[in-house]
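Our example pasted here:


***
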Amino acid sequence: MEAVAVIVALMFAVFVALGVIAVVRSVRAVKRGVDRTVTQARRTVEDTRLKAKQYVQPGAPGEVAELRLSLRTSMRATQEALRAAAPDDPSLSEALALFKRLSTHGQEIDADLKRLEAEPDKARVAGSLPELRERVERVTHSADSLRWAVQDRARQFADDDLALLSEQIRMEAGALRHWTTEEEPQAAPTGAGAGARTPGAGSTGGGAESSEAATTAGTEPERPAITARDAWRQPGYSWQKTRRPESTT
């Protein structure tokens, strides 16, 4: 009885531990989802505010908002392109490392622009804009170049795969039409050759020729018949209609 009680207690402890682990993982997953949603909502609100400020406030404040919006849009698009292509292309590890370093510079410039956005001295804002504009253009140009290269690489891979697939399908189609590569039918004898007879040839010669022709026709190999697939055993596809039984009206 004591052994049974110990086993039951151990099983209960294991179940409790597994339950706790499952609850902790669920809480962490929910927390990550909430954080992701909050971050996306904050990003959307910030982008909307910058777009409104870009058109509403003319002069230096509007230009600062425009620079921040351009920087954030370019960096976010490049990040999404790299994240989408990285799982299928391990060779993008170096590109990811470079973008991480570029993101550090982008965050620094965005912080400088944000401080400049709150600067009350308009002369200071106007004097700092040329340098910040040049830095933003350098970062966005690098981000755009990296994103375009990743997109061109993915497009080239898709084109190569499609070309290879087309060649394989062409070869398979030729193999399925195997009867076209069988022995070609022999050409019929010309009129001059068929009408030429040796003088004095009688019924005996004609009989021998007929017998030889029959023997040749009897020994000619029979061509393989084209067997159709069983329609009920073909794999189904989403664009194929369901085959109706013959008894159905």
Q: What stands out?
A: The two ends are 72 Å apart (CA to CA).
